Amino acid sequence: RLEEFLKKEVDLKLSTLPEFEERVIDFSEVEQLMNSINTIPAPCAPVINAQAPNAATGTSLRVCWGLFSDDTVECYQLCYKPVSNERHSDDQAEHTLKAKETYCTITNLLPNTQYEIWVSALNASGISPPSERAVYVTAPSPPIIKSKKIRSCENAALVCWESRDINPVDSYMVEL
Fold this sequence. Notes:
There is one protein chain. Strand 10 (151-152) and strand 11 form a beta hairpin. The chain is elongated. With 176 residues, it is mainly beta. The chain has helices at 2-7, 28-36, and strands spanning 47-48, 61-66, 75-82, 95-99, 103-106, 114-123, 126-127, 134-137, 144-145, 151-152, 157-158, 161-162. It holds the Pfam family fn3. This is FSD2 protein.
């Protein structure tokens, strides 16, 4: 039977003829649509806030800023450097931190030192102009009490201390 079957001529015609036509795909509408989509612009300059009370320790500063526009921002770049009274203050090393939020805590700073701080915003289109520069100050180091110089009597006490800071301290608060 198999031999007879293989000798038969088989008709391989398909019952429905596929219609293949040569098609050219026109992407002009897609290209026009893609060109009409607006790309997001680079963000505007952030506005840095003045130093808030209790926003500093002897070695850290908490810095806050904001945006006055609805810009798309992926992250912020915070730059800072110590303020110097010397004429060559541009020689001071600038440090840069990245932040996702509109605030950042800078650590490993010197006590009782002024720092110049500015912020830029970044997105896929580029970087914003920097904010205005603000000056923040770290808290002074606690003074060292000179225990050998302490004197007291019935109604008074004499306590002496010295500052560990390079820059002068405005005032001290003594608590009993």
